[in-house]
Write a structure and sequence with these properties.
The complex is a heterodimer of chains A (about 270) and B (about 180). Chain A contains 4 helices and 12 strands; from the N terminus they run αβααββββαβββββββ. Helix content of chain B is about 15%, strand content about 40%. Chain B is elongated, with a radius of gyration of 20 Å. Classes of the chains: A alpha+beta (about 270), B alpha+beta (about 180).
């Protein structure tokens, strides 16, 4: 039975999928030597660019597909699935373990939804303000395929997905006593991907995609709590620069991606 | 389930845990002795322990009455001066504070005199004080200057008396991290 399309926002909030991991959700002050931090962060990725059009086009073809469907339309459908798999909406939850190394360096390991990433930051003391620059390298084994896209994905399956995300972040922030932490971040992420799209159901065989995505933008974050435990909220807004070519069709998916994230963070 | 990346990360943490910059707690020490001799009494104040963590310094002072008469010991807010001139205000531990508040309340309704404990000749009293600063790493200072002015013996303050807390040899002294 085919599911009726929902609004994109509602679907994204309800769906359990996997998303590109753009969230930082850490205050600007790097951890002191021996200081530890554990975070459990949820994040949602909402592409605001031409993704909606791509999804709609893919669904339209998928819902009418039969023996008379042209080869060009089948290719468009398979290409849509690939494009959605790479940059589509999704939800992710991750656990992050961070450790202060001393000398204003801290490191973090993130695990969740097929994402493994490691980060290191160098902090700078600006009096009442803190800042840092950091680099994160991540391996993402998941595609952002969510359930309401089943109609598309039943014809073109995203097989093995490998993605190496390398991001650079500069943050500035301030702490207000032990109650609140506020930060702003600028971030650029280069994501190299290798995706295998299985379109056997459309008699189009397999296609391997090997290209990259580029996100750049910023985030604002706030943590509220006391001393050891804070509730963290971050809103990231990124420009995605991306052109996906699959099954002979080219999809320009450039546009704004919004990523709200939230969760709890314990520091001790 | 503990997977490989997490295990590697924990191994990294444990491996680095021996580095001085990663040690979370240091015990500072001091051989300074403050001697107060009010009204034919002799009271000595020594450092029993100084536990310095990232954001906190917990000091225990031993106040010993070496005289032949009982002495009344009172304590107000303590001060800890950092090498950069910053002064932190320290509060007595929650229990000490509650006891002091209770005594002052009883004194206000006419029960007791609100003064500190009477220290019998030969007796020793432990006094706990905690300092906290969220913006600094207090483990990195080579010397912390504890001002003992806050202590009064028989209502006479130990004016301009200090106990200097010395960082251990291995601590990453002076490192601004």
């Amino acid at each position: 039975m085919r599911r009726q399309p929902h609004s994109l926002w509602l679907t994204v909030l309800l769906a359990a999928g996997c998303a590109v991991n753009l969230s930082e959700s850490r205050p600007a002050r790097v951890l002191r030597g021996g200081e530890m931090q554990i975070s459990n962060i949820n994040s949602v990725v909402v592409p605001m660019g031409s993704m909606g059009t791509t999804i709609d086009a893919g669904k339209t073809i998928a819902q009418k597909i039969d023996q008379r469907t042209s080869d060009a339309d089948k290719r468009r459908l398979a290409g849509s699935a690939a494009a959605i798999g790479l940059t589509g909406p999704g939800y992710a939850n991750h656990l992050e373990f961070a450790l202060g190394l001393g000398y204003r360096l801290d490191t973090a390991l993130r695990i969740g939804n097929g994402i493994y990433s490691a980060a290191i930051r160098r902090g700078f003391d600006l009096g009442k303000w803190d800042s840092n620059i950091g680099v994160r390298v991540g391996y993402n084994s998941g595609a952002s395929v969510i359930s309401y896209l089943d109609t598309i994905n039943s014809y073109a399956k995203i097989g093995s997905t490998k993605r190496i995300d390398t991001s650079f972040t500069a943050q500035i922030g301030r702490e207000f006593g032990e109650w609140a932490k506020l930060w702003a971040a600028a971030k650029a992420m280069y994501s190299r991907y290798w995706v295998d799209v299985d379109a056997e159901n459309l008699d189009l065989g397999h296609e391997k995609l090997d290209d990259h995505l580029l996100y750049y933008g910023g985030a604002l974050g706030l943590a509220l709590g006391f001393r050891w435990v804070h509730f963290v909220m971050e809103l990231g807004i990124y420009e995605l620069s991306c052109k996906v070519t699959a099954f002979g069709n080219s999809y320009d998916l450039s546009g704004v991606t919004v990523t709200p994230s939230w969760g709890f963070q314990a520091t001790f | 389930m503990l997977n490989k990346p997490l295990a590697a990360f924990m191994a990294l943490g444990l491996g680095l845990a021996g580095c001085a910059a990663m040690v979370r707690t240091w015990q500072f020490s001091s051989s300074d002795v403050v001697v107060a001799t009010p009204a034919a009494s002799r009271v000595e104040i020594r450092l029993r322990s100084a536990t310095v963590k990232q954001k906190t310094v917990h000091v225990t002072l031993a106040v010993a009455n070496l005289g032949s008469r009982p002495a009344t010991v009172d304590a107000g807010p303590f001060s800890l001066r950092l090498p950069d001139g910053t002064t932190l205000s320290g509060d007595a531990s929650a229990l000490d504070y509650a006891l002091k508040l209770g005594k002052s309340l009883l004194a206000a309704v006419g029960l007791g005199d609100g003064k500190g404990p009477q220290l019998a000749p030969g007796a020793t009293l432990d006094m706990n004080v905690e300092f906290r600063d969220n913006r600094r790493d207090l483990r990195r200072y080579p010397v912390l200057d504890l001002e003992v002015d806050a202590i009064s013996i028989n209502s006479q303050r130990c004016t301009d008396q200090h106990i200097f807390l010395q960082a251990p040899e291995r601590a990453p002294k002076g490192e601004n991290i």
